[in-house]
Amino acid sequence: MSASDSAKLRTLLSLLDERYGMLTWWPGTPEEIIIGAVLTQQTRWKNVERGINELHHQGLCRLSALASSPLCRIEEAVQCTGFFRMKARRLQNLSRVIMDRFGGVEGMVDRSLNDLRTTLLSIDGVGEETADSILCFALGRCSFIIDRYTERICACAGIGSKGGALKDLVESVVPHDLATYRQAHAHFVEYAKEWCGKKRCEECAIVRLRG
DNA sequence: GACCAGGTCCTTG
DNA sequence: CAAGGACATGGT
Fold first, then answer.
1. Are the beta carbons of A65 and A177 closer than 8 angstroms?
2. What are phi and psi of A201, to 5 degrees?
3. Distance, Å, A123 CA → C8 C1'
4. Which terminus of chain A is more solvent-facing, meaning fewer CB atoms within 10 Å of its CB: N or C?
5. Which of A138, A169, A196 is the last residue of a domain?
6. What share of chain A is helix, strand, coil (3-state, %, to 5)?
7. Considering only A53-62, A65-74, A156-165, A179-188, which range has the smallest mean pLDDT?
8. How many domains does chain A have?
9. Chain A, 101-160: which CBs lie within 7 Å of strand B?
10. CA angle A159, A162, A165 (to 5 degrees)
11. Last residue of a domain, one of A138, A164, A189
12. In whole angstroms, what is the distance from residue A56 CA to residue A49 CA?
C-alpha cells in the first residue's frame, strides 16, 4: 500500500461521497441481514428480497427456524435466488453454528471483532465478503467489505492494492465509524451499478485518478 | 441465445 | 498462488 494509493483512495472516497451522499443501504433486522448476506452471493438483490419474503411466508426467516427446518422447505423458499440447494444447506448450517455456539445473534454482540470474524470465516459458505457484510451490517462492527466492485473500481482508479491489502488500505483511510463504513461500501456498489459492466469504468470521470 | 448478478469452494498447473 | 469450473435462477 503505497502513499499514492492512500491519496488516490481518499480522493475516490470523497468523490463518491459527493456524488451519492446519504444512501440507506442494507435494511432489515440483524437476522434478515445475515440471511440476505448468504442469499445475495452472486445474485441480484431483487431476487434476494423475494427469497427473504418467501422465507417469511414459510415462517423460516429466523435462524432458530432455519436451524431445525427440513432442508427441502428451505430449498423451496430460496429457489428464486439461484444456487438454491447450496444456499439452503449453508443457511441451515450457518444458523446452527450461530445458535449452538452463541445462542443466537444476541450472543455475538459482546465478542471481539477478531473472534467473530474467525468464527464466521470457518463456516462453510462464508467467505470474506459475506463475513464482513455480517459484521458491518448485521453486527455493527467496523470491518470493511471488499467485494468485486470495490476491487474493480479501485483498480480502475489506479490503486495497486488488492484483497487483504486493499482491506487494510481502506481501513487505514476511512474513519473508524460505523455509519461511514456502511456508507462507503454503499457508494462503491452504487457507483458500480451505474458504470461497471455498461460503459467501462475508465470512461467515468470519477475514476480517472491514475497517473 | 448470450451474459451477468452485492461469492465461495475445490481442483489444476 | 492464479486460473477455471461448479453451483442455478432470473433479468436484460
1. no
2. -50, -40
3. 22
4. C
5. A138
6. 70, 0, 30
7. A156-165
8. 2
9. 123-131, 133, 137, 147-149
10. 100
11. A138
12. 11
pLDDT (tens digit per residue) in A43-73:
999 999 999 999 999 999 999 999 999 999 9
Angle at A78 between CA A75 and CA A82, to 5 degrees: 100
CA(A194)–C1'(B8) in Å?
A: 26
Are A54 and A48 within 8 A, CB to CB? no
List the one residue out of A138, A148, A131, A118 whose CA is nearest residue A182.
A138
Range of the domain at A7: 3-23+145-207
Task: Give the residue carrying C-alpha cell 455475538.
Answer: A108
Q: What is the CATH number of the domain that holds A76?
A: 1.10.340.30
Q: Would you state the cell numbers that stand for residue A113, as one nine-digit string?
A: 471483532
